[in-house]
Write a structure and sequence with these properties.
- It contains 5 helices and no strands.
- By secondary structure, it is mostly helical.
Length: about 110
């Protein structure tokens, strides 16, 4: 007799980019051997370390400005303003935010 009382949950893709989820890579990982998975983790780790090193090469002092820092009252007001925007549904998707950031900081790439 077949047991139909099993629960199946989809793989959690929370926080992953749409590009990664749609790439099909995540579904292929399941079929890899343990050794290949270890090598893939090592490869990705090296890529991340390299990317972080490149980011460290950015001259962050070039972003300094003469603007004074926010006071705590100003920060709290900004937090409250954004909370109210959230409650009104005035939100952007991750994809929209990434596109805006790309346009704004295109010169960094």
């Amino acid at each position: 007799m077949e047991d139909n009382n099993k629960v199946c949950e989809p793989i959690a893709f929370f926080g992953m980019s749409e590009n990664l989820v749609n790439s099909g890579l995540l579904t292929q990982i399941h079929d890899l051997s343990t050794e290949d998975k270890k090598r893939l983790i090592s490869f990705i780790t090296q890529e991340v370390v390299y990317a972080e090193d490149v980011e460290d090469d950015v001259d962050w002092d070039a972003f300094d400005s003469d603007l004074p820092p926010y006071t705590l009252d100003e920060l709290h007001a900004r937090i409250e303003k954004s909370h109210q925007q959230y409650l009104r549904g005035e939100v952007s998707t991750e994809k929209e935010v990434r596109e805006e950031l790309k346009k704004e900081f295109l010169w960094l790439q």
